[in-house]
Amino acid sequence: MPEVFVEGLEDNARQSMVDLLNETLSDTIAMTLAVKQAHWNLKGQGFIGVHELLDDVAGRLREASDLMAERAVILGGIAKGTAEEVALDSKVEAYPLDITDIEDHVRALTDRFKAFGKTLRKGIEAAGEAGDDDTEDLLTEVSRAADKDAWFIGANSPKSK
Protein backbone atom coordinates (compact mmCIF):
# COMPACT_ATOMS: atom_id res chain seq x y z
CA MET A 1 0.00 0.00 0.00
CA PRO A 2 1.39 3.43 -0.94
CA GLU A 3 2.47 5.74 1.84
CA VAL A 4 0.15 8.57 2.87
CA PHE A 5 1.80 11.96 3.28
CA VAL A 6 -1.21 13.73 4.79
CA GLU A 7 -2.39 13.68 8.39
CA GLY A 8 -5.79 14.82 9.58
CA LEU A 9 -8.04 13.35 6.88
CA GLU A 10 -10.18 10.31 7.48
CA ASP A 11 -9.30 7.31 5.30
CA ASN A 12 -12.64 7.38 3.50
CA ALA A 13 -12.31 11.13 2.76
CA ARG A 14 -8.76 10.61 1.55
CA GLN A 15 -9.78 7.76 -0.77
CA SER A 16 -12.73 9.77 -2.03
CA MET A 17 -10.38 12.61 -2.91
CA VAL A 18 -7.98 10.26 -4.72
CA ASP A 19 -10.91 9.02 -6.81
CA LEU A 20 -12.08 12.58 -7.48
CA LEU A 21 -8.59 13.71 -8.44
CA ASN A 22 -8.19 10.80 -10.85
CA GLU A 23 -11.56 11.50 -12.46
CA THR A 24 -10.62 15.14 -12.85
CA LEU A 25 -7.16 14.16 -14.10
CA SER A 26 -8.78 12.15 -16.90
CA ASP A 27 -10.93 15.12 -17.88
CA THR A 28 -7.94 17.47 -17.77
CA ILE A 29 -5.84 15.22 -19.98
CA ALA A 30 -8.77 14.88 -22.40
CA MET A 31 -9.10 18.68 -22.46
CA THR A 32 -5.38 19.01 -23.18
CA LEU A 33 -5.70 16.64 -26.12
CA ALA A 34 -8.76 18.49 -27.46
CA VAL A 35 -6.87 21.78 -27.29
CA LYS A 36 -3.89 20.27 -29.13
CA GLN A 37 -6.21 18.73 -31.76
CA ALA A 38 -7.57 22.20 -32.47
CA HIS A 39 -4.09 23.76 -32.33
CA TRP A 40 -2.78 21.41 -35.00
CA ASN A 41 -5.74 21.62 -37.36
CA LEU A 42 -7.30 25.07 -37.24
CA LYS A 43 -7.24 27.34 -40.28
CA GLY A 44 -8.59 30.76 -41.07
CA GLN A 45 -8.36 34.43 -40.25
CA GLY A 46 -6.64 35.00 -36.93
CA PHE A 47 -4.79 31.69 -37.16
CA ILE A 48 -1.51 32.63 -35.51
CA GLY A 49 -3.09 34.29 -32.48
CA VAL A 50 -5.42 31.38 -31.75
CA HIS A 51 -2.69 28.84 -32.56
CA GLU A 52 -0.32 30.43 -30.02
CA LEU A 53 -3.10 30.90 -27.44
CA LEU A 54 -3.93 27.19 -27.60
CA ASP A 55 -0.29 26.28 -26.87
CA ASP A 56 -0.48 28.42 -23.73
CA VAL A 57 -3.81 26.85 -22.74
CA ALA A 58 -2.41 23.33 -23.24
CA GLY A 59 0.53 24.24 -21.01
CA ARG A 60 -1.79 25.38 -18.22
CA LEU A 61 -3.79 22.17 -18.52
CA ARG A 62 -0.61 20.07 -18.33
CA GLU A 63 0.41 21.94 -15.17
CA ALA A 64 -3.05 21.30 -13.70
CA SER A 65 -2.75 17.60 -14.55
CA ASP A 66 0.56 17.46 -12.76
CA LEU A 67 -0.89 19.09 -9.63
CA MET A 68 -3.83 16.67 -9.56
CA ALA A 69 -1.68 13.59 -10.11
CA GLU A 70 0.81 14.64 -7.43
CA ARG A 71 -2.01 15.39 -4.95
CA ALA A 72 -3.48 11.92 -5.53
CA VAL A 73 -0.11 10.35 -4.71
CA ILE A 74 0.38 12.62 -1.67
CA LEU A 75 -2.98 11.33 -0.40
CA GLY A 76 -1.72 7.76 -0.69
CA GLY A 77 -3.26 6.92 -4.05
CA ILE A 78 -2.01 6.10 -7.50
CA ALA A 79 -2.23 8.70 -10.26
CA LYS A 80 -4.07 7.18 -13.22
CA GLY A 81 -3.13 9.19 -16.28
CA THR A 82 -2.64 6.61 -19.00
CA ALA A 83 -4.39 6.87 -22.35
CA GLU A 84 -6.45 3.82 -21.42
CA GLU A 85 -7.65 5.36 -18.14
CA VAL A 86 -8.46 8.66 -19.79
CA ALA A 87 -10.44 6.89 -22.53
CA LEU A 88 -12.41 4.97 -19.88
CA ASP A 89 -12.96 7.71 -17.31
CA SER A 90 -13.13 11.09 -19.04
CA LYS A 91 -16.54 12.73 -19.26
CA VAL A 92 -15.30 15.29 -21.81
CA GLU A 93 -17.27 15.08 -25.05
CA ALA A 94 -15.18 13.54 -27.85
CA TYR A 95 -13.51 16.22 -29.91
CA PRO A 96 -14.51 16.34 -33.59
CA LEU A 97 -11.76 15.29 -35.98
CA ASP A 98 -13.34 16.73 -39.11
CA ILE A 99 -13.24 20.48 -38.42
CA THR A 100 -10.62 23.01 -39.48
CA ASP A 101 -12.37 26.40 -39.40
CA ILE A 102 -11.22 28.57 -36.50
CA GLU A 103 -14.82 29.47 -35.60
CA ASP A 104 -15.77 25.80 -35.34
CA HIS A 105 -12.77 25.09 -33.11
CA VAL A 106 -13.45 28.14 -30.96
CA ARG A 107 -17.05 26.99 -30.39
CA ALA A 108 -16.08 23.35 -29.76
CA LEU A 109 -13.40 24.32 -27.24
CA THR A 110 -15.48 26.99 -25.51
CA ASP A 111 -18.34 24.54 -24.99
CA ARG A 112 -15.95 21.95 -23.56
CA PHE A 113 -14.28 24.46 -21.26
CA LYS A 114 -17.64 25.54 -19.87
CA ALA A 115 -18.57 21.91 -19.16
CA PHE A 116 -15.10 21.29 -17.67
CA GLY A 117 -15.52 24.30 -15.38
CA LYS A 118 -18.88 22.97 -14.19
CA THR A 119 -17.27 19.60 -13.39
CA LEU A 120 -14.46 21.32 -11.51
CA ARG A 121 -16.95 23.27 -9.39
CA LYS A 122 -18.69 20.02 -8.43
CA GLY A 123 -15.29 18.69 -7.41
CA ILE A 124 -14.61 21.81 -5.36
CA GLU A 125 -17.86 21.25 -3.51
CA ALA A 126 -17.07 17.56 -2.90
CA ALA A 127 -13.59 18.40 -1.60
CA GLY A 128 -15.07 20.98 0.77
CA GLU A 129 -17.61 18.47 2.07
CA ALA A 130 -14.81 15.92 2.59
CA GLY A 131 -12.82 18.45 4.63
CA ASP A 132 -9.88 18.46 2.21
CA ASP A 133 -9.12 22.16 1.97
CA ASP A 134 -5.98 21.56 -0.08
CA THR A 135 -7.74 19.60 -2.83
CA GLU A 136 -10.55 22.16 -2.73
CA ASP A 137 -7.98 24.94 -3.22
CA LEU A 138 -6.20 23.05 -6.02
CA LEU A 139 -9.45 22.53 -7.92
CA THR A 140 -10.41 26.18 -7.34
CA GLU A 141 -7.12 27.26 -8.90
CA VAL A 142 -7.74 25.02 -11.91
CA SER A 143 -11.35 26.21 -12.18
CA ARG A 144 -10.30 29.86 -12.30
CA ALA A 145 -7.79 29.10 -15.07
CA ALA A 146 -10.36 27.03 -17.02
CA ASP A 147 -12.93 29.83 -16.84
CA LYS A 148 -10.34 32.34 -18.00
CA ASP A 149 -9.30 30.05 -20.86
CA ALA A 150 -12.97 29.64 -21.88
CA TRP A 151 -13.11 33.44 -22.07
CA PHE A 152 -9.80 33.79 -23.94
CA ILE A 153 -10.81 31.17 -26.49
CA GLY A 154 -14.47 32.19 -26.76
CA ALA A 155 -13.62 35.86 -27.24
CA ASN A 156 -12.09 34.89 -30.60
CA SER A 157 -15.56 34.21 -31.96
CA PRO A 158 -17.06 36.96 -34.11
CA LYS A 159 -20.35 36.09 -32.39
CA SER A 160 -18.85 36.98 -28.99
CA LYS A 161 -19.81 40.52 -28.13
TrEMBL record:
The protein's organism comes out as Mesobaculum littorinae
Cited NCBIfam families: PRK09448.1 (NF006975)
Please give the InterPro entries that the UniProt record associates with this protein. DPS_DNA-bd (IPR002177), DPS_DNA-bd_CS (IPR023188), Ferritin-like (IPR012347), Ferritin-like_SF (IPR009078), Ferritin_DPS_dom (IPR008331)
Name the Gene Ontology molecular function terms of this record: ferric iron binding; oxidoreductase activity, acting on metal ions
Give the family per the record. Answer: Belongs to the Dps family.
Annotated ranges, domain Ferritin/DPS: 19-155
The protein's name in its UniProt record: DNA starvation/stationary phase protection protein Dps
| Upper classification of the organism | Bacteria, Pseudomonadati, Pseudomonadota, Alphaproteobacteria, Rhodobacterales
